Automatic annotation (TrEMBL):
Keyword annotations: Coiled coil
Protein name per the record: Transposase
Record field: transmembrane: none
Organism of provenance: Ranitomeya imitator
PANTHER family, sorted: CILIA- AND FLAGELLA-ASSOCIATED PROTEIN 57
Domain of life of the source: Eukaryota
InterPro entries assigned to the protein according to its UniProt record, in alphabetical order: CFA-57, Homeodomain-like_sf
Positions in coiled-coil regions: 139-205
Length: 282
């Protein structure tokens, strides 16, 4: 059967309503589904609910505020330091309580994983000397490793600087080569444009010359048809033809000179005539 602390506000209102209707506590308990004692305590005003269980809290709100101030002063403290400071402020608690209160505040505290042994062997002078020797060896090894790492780091830094310089020089060289190639390409394009212009001009000139030659051939054909006494030989080059004519004329002149000289020789050998020839009369 249900208890008084299990009664909800709705059930309590139903109990009050049924009581006003004149029903008994037994009928009400059967209808609600709870015990008669719970209905009786509710109707008599003794329904105070279930009390809190567990032991009483060993700290006060003031002590909790003190712990919060200690934690916020330095958040990187161990659990032992927190407990020591809290105890000095006047709050005697255990480590578990300190840990629980710190977690309830939303912080975390560092708990040492191991405790210092109180054995006589660990506190003996020989053991302490051995610890000092081990610490010295550890320090020497640490120094050696640190020196090795520093040398490695300096070597890597020098190599990085060297590789950076080489990379920069390669980039500069590639950029200079690109500039030179671009200039050469521009020069070649300019020369190609000029050569194309010259070729176009030559083609135009050849076209005009062919046109003139065709017109001259047409004129010569027309003149040969109009003049029937003209020779049928087509003159291709007038300058060559005139030079050839001049040469022929020179040869003819030389031949005539030779004929005159031969006639003078024959006139000297032949005897002179007895009488003179009569003068010509007009």
């Amino acid at each position: 059967m249900g208890k008084t602390s299990d009664l909800t506000d709705v059930k309590k209102a139903i109990i009050d309503t049924l009581k006003q209707e004149g029903k008994t506590q037994k009928e009400i308990s059967q209808q609600i589904g709870c015990s008669q004692s719970a209905v009786s305590r509710h109707l008599n005003g003794k329904s105070v609910g279930r009390k809190q269980c567990g032991r009483k809290c060993c700290t006060t709100r003031r002590g909790d505020r003190t712990l919060r101030k200690i934690v916020e002063k330095d958040r990187f403290q161990t659990l032992g330091n927190l407990r020591k400071q809290w105890t000095e402020s006047g709050v005697e608690t255990s480590r578990a309580t300190v840990h629980r209160r710190v977690q309830e505040m939303g912080y975390r505290c560092r708990i040492p994983q191991s405790r210092a042994s109180s054995c006589k062997f660990h506190t003996s002078p020989s053991f302490q000397a051995e610890i000092v020797g081990i610490d010295a060896d550890i320090q020497r090894e640490f120094a050696r490793q640190r020196e090795h790492l520093e040398r490695s780091l300096s070597t890597l830094q020098k190599k990085l600087v060297k590789d950076t310089e080489i990379h920069r020089a390669d980039n500069v060289r590639v950029m200079q080569e690109n500039v030179t190639l671009i200039k050469e390409i521009n020069e070649l394009r300019r020369e190609l444009k000029i050569s194309r212009t010259k070729v176009h001009d030559l083609e135009v000139a050849l076209g005009v010359e062919r046109k003139n030659r065709r017109s001259s051939l047409a004129d010569s054909k027309g003149s040969s048809i109009s003049d029937p006494h003209a020779s049928g030989v087509l003159r291709l080059n007038i300058e060559e033809e005139t030079a050839r004519i001049i040469e022929l004329q020179k040869l003819e002149i030389k031949r005539l000179h030779a004929v005159l000289q031969s006639q003078d020789v024959t006139a000297g050998i032949r005897p002179s005539s007895v009488g003179r020839l009569p003068s010509l009369t007009t």
